Structure formats: structure tokens, C-alpha cells
Amino acid sequence: MKISIDARRVMPVWLLLVLVWPSIICSTQMFAAGSCGTDIAALKRNIRKLENKLLITTWQVEHLQTHKYFQPLQPVVSDSQTQDDTVPDVKNNINSGTSNDTNSTLIKPHPPAVGLMVYDKDCSELFDRLRPQSGFYRIQPSIHREPFLTYCDMEDGGGWTVFQRRRHGKVDFNRDWVDYRDGFGEFKLRNDEFWLGNEHIHSLLSEGRNLVKIDLMDWGGQRSHAFYENFRITNEADKYRLQYGMYSGKAGDALTGGEGAVEQWSACLGGMQFSTRDQDNDRYHQGSCAQENKAGWWFNRCHAANLNGKFYRKGKYKGQFDNGVVWGTWKGLWYSLRHTTMKVRPLVFLDVTGSGAGEI
Ligand SMILES: [Ca+2]
Fold it and tell me: Which keywords, in A-to-Z order, does the entry hold (predicted)?
């Protein structure tokens, strides 16, 4: 009985020591480093934050690798095309925040801490990822080649990579092989005209199943379009030979030369090599289709479609050769179009608004 009374007296003291001991320790630490209870809570919060960051980063790495966004960091080089350095770059803008030093930002991009530089392989990936506005962006269809600029049409369903465009006739399209191989034109403003370059077009189209849309507009503002599935061109060794699959659309299958066998014999461009004024790879043995038509293009004997032709400002034209900006199955060979666009995206694409209205 006495023992138990003693125990009741002793136990609270022991318990008190156990309960108070951490406070004593804390008080010692508080003396040295401020508020102990607050520090422990802050440390726990930081640990939770770091654990969350780790989880998110791990997930991001897996996600990006799955979607092929990751590529080895390329050596930092200044692009040889000066126009590349004067336009916005989505990736670099993201990584550099709101820097006003556009040139240095573009020439010397700061890679993420993980040491990897990321580019979308085409405008459809960029569209899926960021839903940005239409404009010029840098893409990299092949990890073995440098990224390059092109116009992304994020309207008309979105995700279109543009590789040819005529608008006002200010850019000369009658050029040599090297220009058509490497690309030419302006890459800054919404209405700039350009040819992306056969090398870039080859890498852009070579990956797999795609859909090319050709948008056309006449001088009265009327629009039309043509679709081609699985559009591709071979490499330079094979002179960028044209291959394409099924046609659909409203403007007619001018690439195949129309419906008649005779027309197709002379004007079907499927299977034709690319020709320029200094490289005649057509099937017209008596002369050069590229020289007559003032364009680099795929010619047979010669064509029913030539979107790189001479830019006539009134539509209908006359001359020795049908060398205008021509889509013969829509407006005939003697009508030169005002606007043309050639653009591509994957055949299977989750379209946000639908497309096919011929919007340019
Ligand atoms: Ca020839």
C-alpha cells in the first residue's frame, strides 16, 4: 500500500521527465538557433516538398522519354541562318523566363538542369504539348539533324507543319538546286513566303503515316484544298523523288495530272524526281521543265500542278509556257493562284475543331 503510494508519487516525476526532456533539448537548441518547434515543422514541410518534386520529376522524365521529346544535348552553335536568330523560340523562352536579350537567349540556350535540350519533332507535337498560337517555331524531326525553323499552322484543326507558302510574290522561287535543297524565303512574319528545303521536307515526311493538305486561294478570295495521304520524298541521292498515297478534297488531283490517261502520262508527278533550272531530272527530253516553268518542282513532261511557279498578279495569264502558280484541276493551267500552302501532320491526329474547310 505504501509502495503503491510511493509509486504514485514517483511515477509522475518520471513521466514528467520523459515528457519534459524534449522540451529541455529544444530549449537548448532554441537558445542556439531560434525557434526549435518552428524549425522542425519547416524541415518536415521541406522534406515533403522535395519528395513531391522528386516524384513529379521522375514522372516527367518517364513521360518525356515515352513521347520522344528527349534528345541528347547538342553542342551550342550559332545558326548559320541569320533569320533564325530574330524570331521567338518556344523552348528557349520557356527556359529563360522573360529575358529581353533575345539574341543571346537564342544563340546560347540554357538547357534544363538535367542537361538535356528538348525540341518537338513537328508542329503536331508542339500543338499537343502547349497549344500555342500559329507562328514560326523551331522543330527537330530527326535527332540526327539540327533543329530548324518553320511555320506552324495551329488553326484549321491545329498541328500543321508548313513546308511551302506563297502569298504576295515577293520571294523569287526560280532558284537553283542548292537553294531548293536547303530552303529559302522569309521566316519571320505571318505572311512570309518560303520553301522549307528538300532536306528538311525529307526528314519531316520520312517518319511515317502523314496527311498533307494543300490550301489554295484564287484572286477573288475563293478557296479550295487537296489532301494526300502518306506524302514523302526520297533523299538527295534519289533527287527527292515524290511519292504519295490517296487523294481527297475539292481542288482535284492535279498532282496525278487529272483523270485522263493522256494527261497523266505527261503530268503525273508521282514517282518523279525534283528538278531545278540547273538540274534537269524530268521526263521531257526536248527541254527543261524547270527552266520553262521558272520553278523547282517535281516535273514529268511537264505538269498539271506547279505551286512554285511564276507569281502572276491577276490570276489569268498568257505566255509561251503555262508557268504560273498552277493547280490545273481547279483553275486550269492558265490561272496563277494568289495563296498556296503545303502543310503536313500525322495521319492520326486528335483534331480539336475539325479541318478540311480549306482555310489558309
Ligand atoms: Ca528534260
Answer: Disulfide bond, Glycoprotein, Secreted, Signal
Residue 181 Cα to ligand 1 middle (Å): 19
DSSP states along 81-106 = -GGGGGS--HHHHHHHTT-S-HHHHH
CA of 251 to the centre of ligand 1 (A): 28
Q: What residues have CB less than 8 Å from 360, skipping those under 6 apart?
A: 215, 216, 217, 223, 339, 341
Measured distance CA(200)–CA(213) in Å, rounded: 17
For residue 5, give the C-alpha cell: 503510494
What distance in angstroms lies between residue 168's CA and the mean position of ligand 1's atoms?
A: 29
Give the integer Cα–Cα distance in Å for 58 and 260: 59
Tell me the CA–centroid distance for residue 292 and ligand 1, in Å. Answer: 10
Task: Give me the helix-helix angle, 36-66 and 2-33, nearest 10°.
Answer: 70
Compute the distance between CA of residue 300 and CA of residue 257 in angstroms, rounded to an integer.
10
Predicted confidence (pLDDT) per residue in 239-282, tens digit: 999 999 999 999 999 999 988 888 899 999 999 999 999 999 99
DSSP assignment letter at 334: T
What's this model's pTM, rounded to 2 decimal places? 0.68
Tell me how far the alpha carbon of residue 239 lies from the centroid of ligand 1, in angstroms. 14
